[in-house]
Design brief:
Blueprint: E1 3-7, H1 15-22, E2 28-31, E3 40-44, E4 47-51, E5 64-67, E6 72-73, H2 75-87, E7 96-99, E8 103-104, H3 107-120, H4 132-140, H5 156-173, H6 181-195, E9 199-200, H7 202-211, E10 216-219, H8 244-250, E11 259-265, E12 268-270, H9 283-291, E13 304-306, E14 308-309, H10 310-320, E15 324-328, E16 338-347, E17 350-352, H11 359-364, E18 366-373, H12 390-403, E19 407-411, E20 419-421, H13 427-430
Parallel strand pairs: 1-10, 1-11, 2-5, 2-10, 5-7, 6-8, 7-9, 11-15, 14-16, 15-19
Antiparallel strand pairs: 3-4, 12-13, 16-17, 16-18, 19-20
The structure holds inosinic acid (IMP).
């Protein structure tokens, strides 16, 4: 039973808490895409951790964590994160593995990210400025530098040529700045010295683990609508956050993925630019932002907020093959008199019940809402489905109906224990919750 847990909206769905909570059911937690643009917030015993590159399972000493080839790794960001959690008493020695095929984010990528955004002007993507896009550009352009290229046995000449070529290209693009490729090259030796103990062929590692009956969780970063192929292009990240990214980003076959659980907030948020049909630009949007502390965990930017969008969710069910949904931040909706769920769109007066593939059409979509009753008794901290107010249970039933997928897990607060696992659901065969 190897389960994928991934974002069904525009990222920030609260995957970190869910992955951390379910981790004791698994031997491995593997990330398959993205980089330190992710920000997975996890609270353990009241202490807050923001994990960017490390899989959220890292907080559990008995679990091994994998950074797959599908990621782009900024070595300095990785080392800083390792230092941070080591200082908090969490040892990663012997249980953190980084794919030798993962591409590196190097100093020039960040500058190119900022430059590319500036050049786009009003059409900017609103990236996290971490150099993610440029590093993936180099990967696809076949000029990237991979972790394994730093090894003693790798060709020094090829590495030197690649560094020189990339730095010269960057110097050509950025006026009045001169980066010395020799310095970048020299810096790679120190990076390798520190990285070497973690480097592995993760495809082999996972294959052996799965064959010997060990269970693996696949942890997505960002979300379906930020996927480079299936998201709201061009307002997307540069990797495959959807299920397909698991196979390519880790080097495993699709039959090893036993189940797929999407994570979605009880409402919708988005950071960065791009169309967002159910966005609330009024006081209601601000109420969600305040109630849900909707400010980016990596960049601190205020998140755009809106009602739950079932059209987008049905799309996430289709492109990921979702078996089940986890709904997070249910408690943020406590105290709303009425709630709305977007069930379809109209474009120029015509009904549309699927998510359009063309961004211009999405920008013209008007949401069609179903209004439902809110609840006054709190859901905050509820740990059993029966303890939820009637209207909250009805809200979940409506989400299941309009999304066409069962809601198996509900998060009612930031603490690990503020979670409901529905005992009558498929997920009860996948995992148990810690006491
Ligand atoms: P990039 O990944 O930094 O290139 O940013 C591309 C788009 O993805 C921007 O709209 C970012 O705000 C968004 N994005 C990237 N990572 C995350 C995330 O972890 N959560 C939510 N949005 C993200």
């Amino acid at each position: 039973m190897n389960i994928a847990v991934l974002g069904a909206q525009w990222g920030d769905e609260g995957k970190g808490k869910i992955v951390d909570l379910l981790t004791p059911n698994f031997s491995f937690v593997s990330r398959y895409q993205g980089g330190h643009n992710a920000g997975h917030t996890v609270y353990v015993n009241g202490r807050k951790f923001i994990l960017r590159l490390l899989p959220s399972g890292i907080l559990h000493a008995s679990v091994s964590c994998i950074i797959g080839n599908g990621l782009v790794v900024d070595p300095q960001a990785l080392f800083a994160e390792i230092d941070e959690i080591t200082a908090a008493g969490i040892d990663v020695t012997g249980r953190l593995f980084v794919s030798s095929k993962a591409h590196l984010i190097l100093p020039y990528h960040k500058e190119l990210d900022v430059l590319s955004e500036a050049k786009r002007g009003e059409r900017k993507i609103g990236t996290t400025s971490r150099g993610i896009g440029p590093a993936y550009e180099d990967k696809i352009g076949r000029r990237g530098i991979r972790v394994g290229d730093l090894a003693e046995h790798a060709s020094r000449q090829m590495l030197e040529d690649a560094v020189r070529h990339n730095v010269e290209a960057r110097n050509h693009l950025i006026p009045d700045a001169h980066m010395d490729w020799r310095e970048v090259l020299a810096g790679l030796d120190a990076i390798w010295t520190r990285l070497r103990p973690f480097v592995a062929d993760v495809s082999v590692l996972l294959d052996e683990a799965i064959r010997s009956g060990k269970r693996v969780m696949f942890e997505g970063a960002q979300g379906t609508l930020l996927d480079i192929d299936h998201g709201t292009y061009p307002y997307v990240t540069s990797s495959n956050a959807t299920t397909g990214g698991i196979c390519t980003g880790l080097g495993i076959g699709p039959r090893h993925i036993t189940g797929v659980m999407g994570v979605a907030k009880a409402y919708t948020t988005r950071v960065g630019e791009g169309p967002f049909p159910s966005e609330l630009l009024d006081d209601m949007g601000q109420k969600l932002r305040d109630g849900g502390s909707e400010y980016g965990s990596v960049t601190g930017r205020p998140r755009r907020c809106g009602w739950f969008d079932a059209v987008a969710l049905r799309y996430a069910v289709r492109v990921n093959g979702l078996d089940a949904l986890a709904i997070t931040k249910m408690d943020v909706l406590d105290g709303f008199e009425t709630l709305k769920i977007c069930t379809s769109y109209t474009v120029g007066g015509q009904a549309l019940d699927h998510f359009p593939s063309e961004i211009g059409q999405l920008a013209r979509c008007e949401p069609v809402y179903r209004e439902v009753k809110g609840w006054t008794a709190p859901t905050a901290g509820a740990r059993r489905f029966e303890d939820l107010p009637d209207e909250a249970r009805a809200y979940i039933a409506t989400l299941e109906e309009v999304c066409g997928v069962p809601v198996v897990l509900i998060s009612t607060g930031s603490d690990r224990h503020d979670t409901i696992l529905r005992s009558d659901s498929l997920a009860a065969r996948w995992f148990t919750l810690p006491d």
